[in-house]
DNA sequence: TTTAGCCGTCGG
DNA sequence: CGACGGCTAAAA
């Protein structure tokens, strides 16, 4: 009889093991349903872990003696009912252990058992003495400017930092004289000066109205608008309406989109403090923002992929900017898709989910075309702006010197002569992608990967896949020839060539090497100034900072992307081209886009650049996907595996293939080597599963996942299931 | 995934 | 005989 009494805690631990672990409650604590969702500290093997109580149950008679949990760490559940349900759904959908999913959803300090942080924020206001003394402060000084600002109302430290990065200096000067004082508050601080909203165009107005009409219910909406059509103003107006109803808003942006400039824009336009969650914050700051949302103190949170796990107890609206962006899919561990999880949360929460993009993903477009998503179109650039003129440069008959043809150099020179700015785009960093022997055809390959090494500078060969680094050999290792030549041009080579040709204008290279830190990108843009200048770089330049003087976009080459085997490569390339091209031109200055290619007749380029643009491309690509049985017309799961020995790898995938036999009508494709069969010394292979029915695939995965865990052959193999993979690499 | 523990080999 | 490496089962 006592065996039937629910007396054990079923705990989700942060491990990749797909099961829960049973513990007795700590001494003096009764096992009650009220403990579900709270963190507990438990001994596990020889170490101590922090887990979350996932349920309360009767003890399993088959189990041996249970350990006692050390302590319950929370007074209430960390996740509310909605977040808890959404996380459980995510664990099932993307096939990941619940404890691992819970751990991913928590900011570091909470994951490690720290108490919820204090969310009170420091607010500075003028003292009475300060108010009196302000007019007497020396005019034109920073303390005077700060005092004037505070006279309009108290400000929190975020607002002061937005005003000036060096806000502490004048503040300290005022504080020393007793003119300002610090308070602690969890309330939003009113009185932050706000930029008035611009007048919206008719299409923007319609879009805002469409979103506002759906506040209070689940509604997926696609905001489909070209670069410069004013999507952000639509977000801001919708968020204001959401705030006015007393609800919270969550905004997801791609990693690269969360610039200080973008944050400032949200902060200045909205009547409440805007909290940010991004990789540049300390763990403590992330925990504070998360907790402030959980307590309802924060009303607007803007963040990157992992911000989708933020509690939204008073949710009103979720916005996903650049919804097509691949960075929303986590590429290791718990391989969730933030956009898709946001849609599920929106449905559970009963709030609209606004998906914005100039180049919507084919999945989202397909939903919009089928009427499942409301489709809001902003077809014109806001204001007077006109679309840029596109030149496709056939370089088959053109000599390329350092990757640049004569007509392109001439176009850049003309642009600079007008005092305008040029962006030269090339999606390969380094000096040259290949180092080739002119005499025997040998090229420098990585010893641990099936991939060529990239030449960096003049003397270094670098593998972009495993990080291997070595010196350029003095002569060809195969034929002793001295004729080793860099083949092709990366950003570094373009930079040098442009610097030599245009020595008098500022030139900035933007790629992973030059832009390590968070603020480096902003510094680069500042270094460019607002006169004539050149930016060279990779897709880091595709969005971000607004550059009004930029009128010429030169795409040095994207030919290597035209023939990729991956089913999503075309979509990616089209999105990238449209994004980069969209940077050319503004209201008064018409932009031009130059594309150098050896394949001017490639269907993708014809349709995209000289035909009907992105939507015409998308229609063709969707037809191809339908014919080939790829998403959105089928749902995929990729079983990836890697091992040091080929035999172990093959044996594992052969077993996995057998396990997937005839199940639920899901198509199992024969195991095959990965597109890069060897990487960092490890052999890689994969098996694809596909089904037109998402439910059938999910049913198979529910059976397959535990069986894979139980396989003997799994031992020497690292494997993972990737549900809805963004690429098959 | 991590790790304790078992067993077999090998050097001292 | 004890150290070490490789393999396996178990972690509640
Ligand atoms: Zn050679
Ligand atoms: Zn390598």
UniProtKB/TrEMBL annotation:
Positions bound to Zn(2+) 1: 437, 440, 476, 479
GO molecular-function term, one example from the UniProt record: hydrolase activity
UniProt cofactor note: Binds 2 zinc ions per subunit.
Residues holding Zn(2+) 2: 446, 449, 463, 466
EC number(s) on file: 5.6.2.4
Record field: catalytic activity: Couples ATP hydrolysis with the unwinding of duplex DNA by translocating in the 3'-5' direction; ATP + H2O = ADP + phosphate + H(+)
Keywords for this protein: ATP-binding, DNA replication, DNA-binding, Helicase, Hydrolase, Isomerase, Metal-binding, Nucleotide-binding, Primosome, Zinc
Gene3D superfamilies: P-loop containing nucleotide triphosphate hydrolases, PriA, 3(prime) DNA-binding domain
GO cellular component: primosome complex
Domain Helicase ATP-binding: from-to ranges: 212-378
GO BP field: DNA recombination; DNA replication initiation; DNA replication, synthesis of primer; double-strand break repair
HAMAP family on file: PriA (MF_00983)
Function (record text): Initiates the restart of stalled replication forks, which reloads the replicative helicase on sites other than the origin of replication. Recognizes and binds to abandoned replication forks and remodels them to uncover a helicase loading site. Promotes assembly of the primosome at these replication forks.
Family membership noted in the UniProt record: Belongs to the helicase family. PriA subfamily.
Subunit structure: Component of the replication restart primosome.
UniProt-recorded name of the protein: Replication restart protein PriA
Lineage start: Bacteria, Pseudomonadati, Pseudomonadota, Gammaproteobacteria, Lysobacterales
């Amino acid at each position: 009889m006592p065996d039937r009494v629910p007396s054990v805690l079923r705990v989700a631990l942060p491990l990749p093991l797909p099961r829960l672990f049973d513990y007795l409650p700590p001494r003096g604590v009764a096992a009650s349903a009220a403990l579900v969702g709270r963190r507990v500290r438990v001994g596990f093997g020889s170490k101590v872990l922090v887990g979350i109580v996932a349920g309360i149950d009767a003890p399993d008679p088959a189990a041996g003696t249970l350990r006692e949990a050390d302590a319950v760490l929370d007074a209430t559940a960390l996740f509310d009912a909605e977040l808890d349900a959404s996380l459980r759904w995510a664990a099932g959908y993307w096939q990941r252990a619940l404890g691992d999913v819970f751990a991913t959803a928590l900011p570091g300090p909470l994951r490690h058992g720290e108490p919820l942080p204090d969310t009170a924020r420091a607010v500075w206001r003028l003292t009475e003495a300060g108010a009196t003394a302000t007019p007497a402060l020396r005019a034109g000084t920073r303390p005077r400017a700060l005092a004037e600002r505070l006279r309009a109302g108290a400000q929190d430290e975020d607002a002061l930092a937005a005003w000036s990065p060096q806000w502490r200096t004048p503040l300290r000067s005022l504080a020393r004289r007793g003119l300002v004082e610090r308070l602690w508050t969890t309330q939003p601080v009113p009185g932050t000066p706000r930029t008035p909203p611009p007048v919206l165009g008719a299409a923007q107005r319609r879009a805002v109205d469409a979103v506002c009409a759906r506040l209070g219910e689940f509604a997926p909406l696609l905001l489909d608008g070209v670069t410069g059509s004013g999507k952000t103003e639509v977000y801001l107006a919708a968020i204001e309406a959401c705030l006015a109803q007393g609800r919270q808003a969550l905004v997801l942006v791609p990693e690269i989109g969360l610039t200080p400039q973008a944050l400032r824009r949200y902060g200045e336009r909205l009547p409440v403090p805007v909290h940010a969650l991004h990789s540049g914050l300390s763990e403590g700051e992330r925990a504070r923002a998360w907790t402030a949302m959980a307590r309802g103190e924060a009303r607007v949170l803007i963040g990157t992929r992992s911000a989708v796990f933020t509690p939204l107890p008073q949710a009103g609206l979720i916005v996903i900017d650049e919804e097509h962006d691949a960075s929303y899919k986590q590429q290791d561990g718990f391989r969730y898709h933030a956009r898709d999880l946001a849609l599920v949360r929106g449905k559970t929460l009963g709030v609209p989910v606004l998906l914005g993009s100039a180049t919507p993903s084919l999945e989202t477009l397909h939903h919009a075309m089928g009427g499942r998503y409301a489709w809001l179109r902003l077809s014109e650039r806001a204001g007077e702006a006109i679309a840029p003129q596109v030149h496709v440069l056939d370089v088959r008959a053109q000599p390329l010197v350092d990757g640049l043809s004569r007509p392109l150099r001439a176009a850049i020179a003309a642009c600079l002569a007008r005092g305008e700015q040029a962006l030269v785009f090339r999606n390969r960093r380094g000096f040259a992608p290949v180092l080739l022997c002119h005499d025997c055809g040998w090229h420098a390959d990585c010893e641990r990967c099936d991939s060529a090494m990239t030449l960096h500078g003049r003397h270094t060969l670098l593998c972009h896949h495993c990080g291997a680094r070595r010196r350029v050999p003095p002569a060809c290792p195969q034929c002793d020839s001295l004729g080793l030549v860099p083949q092709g041009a990366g950003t570094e080579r373009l930079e040098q060539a442009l610097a030599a040709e245009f020595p008098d204008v500022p030139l900035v290279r933007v790629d992973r090497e030059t832009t390590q830190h968070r603020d480096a990108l902003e510094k680069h843009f500042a270094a460019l100034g607002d006169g004539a200048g050149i930016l060279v770089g990779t897709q880091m330049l595709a969005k971000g900072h607004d550059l009004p003087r930029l009128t010429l976009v030169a795409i040095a080459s994207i030919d290597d992307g035209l023939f990729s085997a991956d089913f999503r490569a075309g979509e990616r390339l089209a999105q990238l081209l449209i994004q980069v091209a969209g940077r050319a031109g503004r209201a008064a200055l018409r932009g031009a886009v130059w594309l150098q290619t050896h394949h001017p007749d490639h269907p993708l380029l014809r349709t995209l650049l000289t035909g009907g643009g992105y939507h015409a491309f998308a229609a063709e690509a969707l037809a191809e996907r339908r014919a080939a049985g790829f998403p959105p017309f089928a749902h995929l799961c990729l079983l990836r595996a890697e091992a040091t020995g080929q035999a172990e790898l093959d044996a594992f995938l052969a077993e996995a293939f057998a396990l997937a036999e005839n199940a639920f009508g899901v198509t199992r494709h024969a195991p095959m080597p990965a597109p890069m069969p060897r990487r960092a010394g490890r052999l890689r292979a994969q098996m694809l599963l596909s089904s037109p029915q998402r439910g059938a695939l999910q049913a198979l995965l529910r059976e397959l996942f535990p069986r894979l865990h139980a396989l003997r052959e799994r031992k020497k193999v690292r494997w993972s299931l990737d549900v809805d993979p963004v690429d098959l690499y």
